[in-house]
Amino acid sequence: MKKARYLVAGVASLAKPFFLGSLAVGIGLADSGGVASFYLRYLIYPQLIPAICLFFLYFDEERYTTYKPLVALLSIGSMLFLAAMLLPATGNLQKLILMSKNAHIFSRNVVDFATAFLIDLFCGIVLIPGSRARDDRDSTAVPKDGAAFPSKEQ
């Protein structure tokens, strides 16, 4: 079940471009079928790389362990650029709300932004090595030296 986390993160990362596309449409970066929408697809396409890497890690973690730094770099970079996007937005929040045309579109943009950020955060957390299985020793466990009970000499 340890590898299932890569599968879940890969599916979440695969959904991220849809949230980014919805966000771009909501803030007016894409027109319907024009040049801007084709360019937007070009910009969103690299967001699929972490999903592909996470699927490979799900199939064989030892063989594709070199993909972990790439996924970490892309997730951290995406989070930094999303956070940098907040700086101009918070500078003039009223203008951002008016550009959204109504409260429903604005709230959808906020949800899309937060979801994309949380997906990147989740993909980064998945890469953190988990705690290793500890050698649980109970009263019936035999020590490595083969002695069932410690001698009184010790």
What descriptors fit this protein?
0% strand, 154 residues, mainly alpha, 6 helices
Helix content: 55-70%
**Low-pLDDT segments:** 131-139
User: Which class do the helix and strand fractions yield?
Assistant: mainly alpha
Compressed to H and E, one letter per element, the order equals: HHHHHH
Provide a count of the helices. Answer: 6
Percent of residues in beta strands: under 5%
Instruction: Report the count of strand segments.
Output: 0
Q: Give the N-to-C terminal Cα separation.
A: 41 Å
Overall outline: elongated
Number of separate domains: 1
Mean pLDDT, all residues: 80
Rg: 23 Å
For the sheet with most strands, the description reads: none
Structure characterization notes:
- The structure is a single chain.
- The chain has 154 residues and is mostly helical.
- The protein is built from six helices and no strands.
- It has helices at 4-26, 35-44, 49-59, 67-91, 93-99, 103-126.
- Helix 1 (4-26) runs antiparallel to helix 6, helix 3 (49-59) packs antiparallel against helix 4 (67-91) and helix 4 packs antiparallel against helix 6.
- The longest helix has 25 residues, at 67-91.
